[in-house]
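Record 1 of the preview.
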Amino acid sequence: MTVAGVSVRVPSWELPHRGGPRPPVAPYPIPHRQTGDTAGPEGVAALSGLLESYASASEGRMYMARSRFERRGEALFVADDFRTTPVLRKSGGELVHVHSGDGSLHVVTDLSDAQAIIDAGWGELHPLAGRPLVGLPEPYVLLYSPRDKGDLRQISLIVDRVVRSALQRPS
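->
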């Protein structure tokens, strides 16, 4: 799977390969969900807490609100004054949300990081990503649910990368 706009596949960071098979994902695009190997309530709570911690520590640069894409559940948003990239503006500032039913997440990241996540087996593009009529940005990626504490740690590092990249001001 290749992200449109990524012409050279150069790893943008050292992302270890996710072991094991790709988890099952529903065959339809809405809702885009994992159907097996899902996280339990503790994993979902940990991921939700992670997003809330970014919002509370961001000094007004980020906040939690109802997801624009899910239309239910909370998402982490970048505040208007910090939406410095076309991708963030297209997403309305929505950066990441957790699916409470399975523990998977959707993230909006930059193109090369989206490709790195996919190549390392941690996620996949949303089937409708980048389609103008739908409004999902091209790098709209489903991160698979954590299977254990090691996965939770790695997914937390991926989310940290997504957040840090979103808050960097272009030079």
